[in-house]
Structures are given as C-alpha cells and as structure tokens.
Amino acid sequence: MTSHSSPVRAHAPLPEGISTLADHERHARGVMDAPTWAYLCGAAADELTFTRNVEAWRTLELLPRVLKPLAGGHTRVNLLGRTLAHPILVAPMAYQRLAHPDGEHATTLAAAALGAGMVFSTQASMPLDEIAATFLPEPGRGPLWFQLYLQPDRDFTRELVRRAEAAGFEALVLTVDAPVQGSRDAERRANFRLPAHVSAVNLAGMRPPPARAIVSGQSALFDDLLTHAPGWEDLAWLRSITRLPVLLKGVLHPEDARQAVACGAAGLIVSNHGGRTLDTTITTASALPRIADAVKGEVPLLVDGGIRRGTDVLKAMGLGASAVLVGRPVLHGLANAGATGVAHVLRLLRDELEIAMALTGCRTLSEAPMVLAQPPL
Ligand SMILES: Cc1cc2nc3c(=O)[nH]c(=O)nc-3n(C[C@H](O)[C@H](O)[C@H](O)COP(=O)(O)O)c2cc1C
User: Fold this and answer.
1) Which of 17, 34, 74, 282 has a CA between 20 and 30 Å from the CA of residue 367?
2) Which numbered atom of ligand 1 lies nearest the CA of 273?
3) Which residue, judged by its Cα, is nearest atom 27 of ligand 1?
C-alpha cells in the first residue's frame, strides 16, 4: 500500500435503524461537517435539477402485470459484451476520501463484492492502479471503467489513458457536461476547501495548460479556461489513442446522442451530473426515453441522477436503459460505515429491484414493465 491508502475498515458496523437509501442520507448528514456535506452532497445554484432528478423517478408510475411466471427470474443484464449480475454501477465521484479515510478503496471493495460495476473518477483521491488491483481479482465483479476528464495537456491525457489501460480498466467514460465547474453556491457559502491530505493523486505532475490567444478580450472564462474545452474532434482523437471502448457521459439532447453514436461512442450515459453543473436542466428520467428514441438501440444507454430506489432502477430499464449509475447514496454509505456502508447501499437497491420486478410480473429485466409518466412527457 502507498501512503495514499489507509487500512480498510471493512467491518465497520452499520449504524442502527438504516433500512433505505434515504436513511443512509439522513445519517450521513449528521456524520459529515457542513462544508464537506456541501461539496459531496450539494449541487449547482438552487439545486433544482438535483431535487427534480429524484422527484422525477418517484413520480413515474409503474403498470404491473399479474399472474406472470416468475420462477427462475434474475437481474442479469448484458453490457458491452459481458453479463452482469445486475444493472447497478457506482458513478464516478471525485475525492472519496472526504467521506471516509478509506475513500475509493472502500467503495471499490464493496462494489466488487456486490457485483456492481465501478466507474473510477479522474479526480479520485487514490491511485488508479491500486483500485484496479483491488477490484479486478474479485470473481463476481462487474465492469471497471475509468472516467476521463480531458486535460488541457493532451500529452498528459494520453499518458493517463495509457496508465488506465495498463492497470486493467475495461472502458473509458468521457465526461462531456462539465467544460467548466457549475455555480456551486452551497459549497461557496460553506467555504469548502479541499483538506491538504486529499488531492487528485492521478493528476499529479500535470503541467499548467499552455497559454492560448485571447479570442474576445471580454471574458476570462471564454478566453482562458474554455479555450481548452473538448469538442467532437477530441472524441475522435481519444478513440484513435486507445483500444478501449469509449462511452460519453453527460448527454441530454437526442441530437448529441445521435452524433455521439455516429462518432463511434460505445455507449452513452444520460446524465446531468446529478445537478452539479447546470441547474434547471431536463431531468434524466425525462431525457432517457427521448434519447432511447433517437438512438434506437444502436448503443447501450445508461442513466444516472436521482436513483434512490429499486423501483427507480426498474423504471430506468423500462424506459430503455441497459444499466444505471448511483452517485451520492454511495457516498452516504461510505461516510456511515466505510465499505460496509457502501455494500449495504448497493444491496438495498438490488433487493428492492428484485422485489419490484416480482411485483410487476417481470422475470428478467428485458421484460421491464411499462412506465407511465405523470404528468405526461
Ligand atoms: C461528490 C461528487 C463528485 C463527482 N465527481 C464526478 C467526477 O469526477 N466525474 C464525473 O463524471 N461525475 C462526477 N460526479 C457526478 C456523478 O458521476 C453522477 O453523475 C451523479 O452523482 C449522479 O447523481 P446522484 O448523485 O443523484 O446519483 C460527481 C458527483 C458527486 C456527488
């Protein structure tokens, strides 16, 4: 282990009285200090997208069938050529050592043990090769993907991709909805600062971006930071330097979805970054069926943002998703009880999914039930 790691307290007891993801959230709020809570669990601006994501899944209605054969049912799904035990993946999230000293290591252990896919953030607070070495040997594991933020220094980006490939990551997830950080007011109000012991260790040694010509002379944002913002040509570049499949994360517009497929994306993650970038965007529950219509099954669709119940997972599958990603609830579980807490969150979701399948007459997820929008789409 390197100095970045700490022994995993895999057997940290789960606090009493927690039987839903909402219970985990309530408890975690009491465990974290206010600035850390604002960073990890807050969202952009008035946090409307964040709240509406959750509300949108809750509001959708399931139309169950009865007296259907259920024996031999299962939650297995196929994704990018593999069979997964269930369709729940851990979303990429930065700086998990803020939630618990065991950070990404604990999340990885729990995800591997629960057969959940793990998407590891570019801005993780633990080394990517250690995480891969923890995850990959687990026999029942799900997929291990590396989430990539293209860095202004493209040579560094290329080297980062090479390191992820060498460590055994199985796909790249290119996040495209955050060319600039959203206006995270709660975080600023709480005066959040990264503590000295938490950093984006996999970005260490990156050179500052080369200066570029000023375009308008009016806006520091547009003339400086955004001169390095990725474009469609960067997706082509990324595909040219890697043998791994590249998924795009942060797609909401059906035309972007079509273009991504045309540019060779291996899959799409319908996401609004959990409301952390732009506030008042379309919810992911609302975007998913529109994108499913546009993409017509050409590539797998995943979705995240506001998934808090097994019924939410089932609704996503009914609206055309191949799998879902879960963000903040994993951090709540991590803060509450390290690896045990994350495992509990993933187990609860999966158990709820199975119950929801049985009660809608759905033996496998390819038979996911009809989902009705309330109010209509
Ligand atoms: C603390 C935190 C850090 C995040 N960091 C990243 C990141 O590094 N890369 C990324 O693509 N998404 C990041 N996200 C967004 C998540 O991957 C995901 O899209 C979102 O959390 C899903 O919404 P949910 O939290 O409601 O489940 C982050 C989310 C949170 C809460």
Assistant:
1) 282
2) 19
3) 327
- In angstroms, the Cα distances linking 67 to 182, 314, 328, 363 are 48, 19, 36, 11
Q: What's the predicted TM-score (pTM) here? A: 0.96
Residue 340 and residue 135: Cα distance in Å, rounded?
16
Quote the distance between the C-alpha of residue 321 and its chain's center: 14
pLDDT, tens digit, 9 for 90 and up, residues 85-115: 999 999 999 999 999 999 999 999 999 999 9
Please state the atom number of ligand 1 nearest to the C-alpha of residue 275: 23
Choose the residue to mutate in 276, 281, 284 for probing ligand 1, maximizing ligand atoms within 8 Å of C-beta. 276
Buried b (16+ CB within 10 A) or exposed e, 242-258: bebbbbbbbbbebebbb
For residue 36, what are its two tokens? 């850390």
Give, using CA atoms, the residue closest to atom 13 of ligand 1: 93
Alpha carbon of 305 to ligand 1 centroid (Å): 8
For 200-209, the pLDDT digits (tens) are: 999 999 887 7
Nearest to residue 126, comparing CAs of 63, 56, 202?
202
Active site residues: 273
**Preceding peptide of 375 cis, ω within 30°:** yes
228 DSSP β-pair partners: none
By CB atoms closer than 10 A (0-12, 13-18, 19+), residue 69 is exposed
Residue 234 tokens read as 């960067």
First to last CA, the chain: 51
Helix%, strand%, coil% for the chain, nearest 5: 45, 10, 45
Residue 51 φ/ψ region, left for φ over 0, alpha for ψ in the -120 to 50 degree band, beta for the rest = alpha
46 near 191, Cβ under 8 Å? no
* 140 neighbors 75 (Cβ within 8 angstroms): no
